[in-house]
Amino acid sequence: MPRRRSTRDRPAKAPLSEKAVVDAALDILKSEGLAAVSMRRVAAALDTGPASLYVYVANREGLLHAMQDRIFAMVEPETVDPARWRDQLHTLLGRLRSALATHPGIAMTTMAEPPRSEASLRLLENLLAILLAGGLAPQDAAWATDILATLVNHAAIEAEARPVGHHEQGEDLYRHFTAQSPDTFPLVTAHAAELVAGDAEERFRLAVDTVINGFLAGPV
Fold first, then answer.
1. Average pLDDT of 42-47?
2. Distances (CA, A) of 190 to 67, 181, 194
3. Residue 190: CB atoms within 10 Å
4. How many Å apart are CA 110 and CA 114, to the nearest integer?
5. Global pTM?
6. Is the pLDDT of residue 39 over 90?
7. Cα–Cα distance measured from residue 207 to residue 86, given in angstroms and rounded to the nearest whole number
8. Beta-carbon neighbour count of residue 104 at 10 Å?
């Protein structure tokens, strides 16, 4: 009979840590989606039992918060320069949108419950500083952070929900709009090109500028 392999012959497992747990969860997120991220699935990926994970995260909700924190920490802040505040705003929000879009499902979790971690607070601090440097009043800047966060989340969710390229989707929508009856939808058919114009980046930039310009213009 073959000799049983001694445990001494097996490669040693990497020690568990919060970093290892979050690393495994993020790998599962990217390969299998958010629904697959569970305490049991992460434990299996780490070759341990689910009970071992509770030393580092309280439950699945705690695991999701730790994942959010890691993703927010990836976003490099801006050193605020009042002369370049608008470009810095677009740069910071673009980094955040990219970080969320490359981790499908996380943007939706942040909408369900606003993050409270140190990494998210650092981003909020940076965003507020940029808006105040741009001349927004404190209350307007505070409200703008909420609206801009919604725009970022929506853009990230849209990116993961639409795997087809924006150009291809735009062409498909253009054909659909122009195929309608001009008598029933005179404006849709007449302005089909305008309705599908611009890629995701252009539309996101326009949305951000529209919000900021509205605050700078003051109340109507």
1. 95
2. 46, 10, 9
3. 13
4. 5
5. 0.86
6. yes
7. 13
8. 17
Q: Calculate the CA 143 to chain-centre distance.
A: 20
CA 111 to chain centre: 10
In the block, which residue shows the tokens 């990836």? 74
Q: What is the pLDDT of residues 3-28, one digit of tens each?
A: 555 445 555 566 899 999 999 999 99
**Is residue 208 pLDDT above 90, yes or no?**
yes
DSSP of the chain, one letter per residue?
A: -PPPPPGGGSPPPPPP-HHHHHHHHHHHHHHH-GGG--HHHHHHHTTS-HHHHTTT-SSHHHHHHHHHHHHHHTSPPP---GGGHHHHHHHHHHHHHHHHHTSTTHHHHHHHS---SHHHHHHHHHHHHHHHHTT--HHHHHHHHHHHHHHHHHHHHHHHH--S-HHHHHHHHHHHHHTS-TTT-HHHHHTHHHHT-S-HHHHHHHHHHHHHHHHHH---
List of residues 6+ apart from 93 with CB closer than 8 A? 127, 148, 151, 152, 204, 208
| Amino acid in the structure at residue 39 | M
CB 64 within 8 A of CB 112: no
* Residue among 66, 54, 64 nearest 118 (CA): 66
133-138 long-range contacts, CB within 8 A, separation 24+: 133/80, 133/81, 133/82, 133/85, 134/82, 134/85, 134/86, 134/89, 134/212, 134/216, 135/216, 136/212, 136/215, 136/216, 137/215
> What digits encode the pLDDT tens for the residues 79-136?
999 999 999 999 999 999 999 999 999 999 988 777 788 999 999 999 999 999 999 9
